C-alpha cells in the first residue's frame, strides 16, 4: 500500500474498516470502481463470495438482544431498541432498506430467520458493522433498479396481513417517504387527490404503475398519453390536475 497516494491509502483503510475485508480485496474493489468508495461498496456487496463471514454466535446474541420476551420474533419494542442502537429514527427510510435486505414479510417485525439471514447477506455480525453499513444502504436508494425493488417490496411489507390492498393512509405515508427520496413534484397533489376523490385502499397494480408514471411522465404532463395503459386511478388523477388548474391541458 506504500506505493499509493495518501488519498487512495485513506480510501483503502476506510473500505477495510467498514467491510472488515483484506487489503487485497479492498484494492480490487476500489480499482474496479475507479476509486469511488460508493461504487466499490456496490461491487463488494454484490459479490457474496468476498464478504467476511459473520460469526453465528454474534448473530444469535444480536437477535436475542432485540427478541420479544414472549414470542420468538423481534417486534415493535425490539425494533425501537435496534433503531436506538443504530442511532436512526424508526421512521427513517433507511429502516425500509434494512427490512428489504431482511426480506421482512411485515412492517414492525422480524422473524429470527429474516433477521439473521439479512445480517448474513450484509456481512454484519456486530452493532458497529451494522452502523457502518447504514451509509451503504442509504446509497442503494440512489440506484434506479434497487429503488424500484425497494419501492415494490414496500407494498407487501406495509399492508395488513391477509389483505390484498394497502390501506390508503398507509399508502400515502409510504409514498411521502419514498418520493421524498425520489423527488416527484406531484406527490402532494397525488395524496390530496386520493383523499378527496378515492378514499379507498390501494391495489398493487396502482402502486407499481405509479412509480412508472412518476418516472416517465414529466410534471407538466406534456408527454402523458391518454391512450396509454395506465390504471383508471392515474387517468382520473390527470383529469383532477387539469380541472384544478395545477397543470395545463396539452393541445
TrEMBL record:
Report the domain of life of the source organism. Answer: Eukaryota
An annotated GO BP: protein neddylation
PROSITE patterns xrefs: DCUN1
Pinpoint the DCUN1 domain residues. Answer: 54-242
One GO CC term on file: ubiquitin ligase complex
Q: Identify the PANTHER family for this entry.
A: DEFECTIVE IN CULLIN NEDDYLATION PROTEIN, RP42 RELATED
Name assigned to this protein: Defective in cullin neddylation protein
Amino acid at each position: 500500500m506504500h506505493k499509493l497516494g495518501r488519498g487512495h491509502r485513506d480510501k483503502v483503510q476506510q473500505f477495510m474498516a467498514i467491510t472488515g475485508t483484506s487489503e487485497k480485496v479492498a484494492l480490487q474493489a476500489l480499482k474496479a470502481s475507479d476509486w469511488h468508495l460508493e461504487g466499490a461498496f456496490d461491487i463488494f456487496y454484490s459479490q457474496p463470495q468476498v464478504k467476511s463471514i459473520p460469526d453465528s454466535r454474534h448473530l444469535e446474541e444480536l437477535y436475542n438482544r432485540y427478541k420479544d420476551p414472549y414470542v420468538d420474533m423481534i417486534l415493535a419494542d425490539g425494533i425501537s431498541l435496534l433503531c436506538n442502537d443504530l442511532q436512526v429514527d424508526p421512521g427513517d427510510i433507511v429502516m425500509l432498506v434494512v427490512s428489504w435486505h431482511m426480506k421482512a414479510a411485515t412492517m414492525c417485525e422480524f422473524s429470527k430467520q429474516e433477521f439473521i439471514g439479512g445480517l448474513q447477506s450484509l456481512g454484519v455480525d456486530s452493532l458497529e458493522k451494522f452502523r457502518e453499513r447504514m451509509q451503504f444502504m442509504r446509497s442503494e436508494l440512489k440506484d434506479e433498479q434497487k429503488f424500484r425493488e425497494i419501492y415494490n417490496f414496500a407494498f407487501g411489507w406495509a399492508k395488513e396481513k391477509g389483505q390484498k390492498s394497502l390501506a390508503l393512509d398507509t399508502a400515502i405515508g409510504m409514498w411521502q417517504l419514498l418520493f421524498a427520496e425520489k423527488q416527484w413534484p406531484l406527490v402532494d397533489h397525488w395524496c390530496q387527490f386520493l383523499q378527496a376523490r378515492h378514499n379507498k385502499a390501494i391495489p398493487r397494480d396502482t402502486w407499481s404503475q405509479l412509480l412508472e408514471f412518476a418516472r416517465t411522465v414529466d410534471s407538466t404532463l406534456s408527454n402523458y398519453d391518454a391512450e396509454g395503459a395506465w390504471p383508471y386511478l392515474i387517468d382520473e388523477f390527470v383529469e383532477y390536475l387539469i380541472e384544478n388548474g395545477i397543470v395545463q391541458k396539452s393541445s
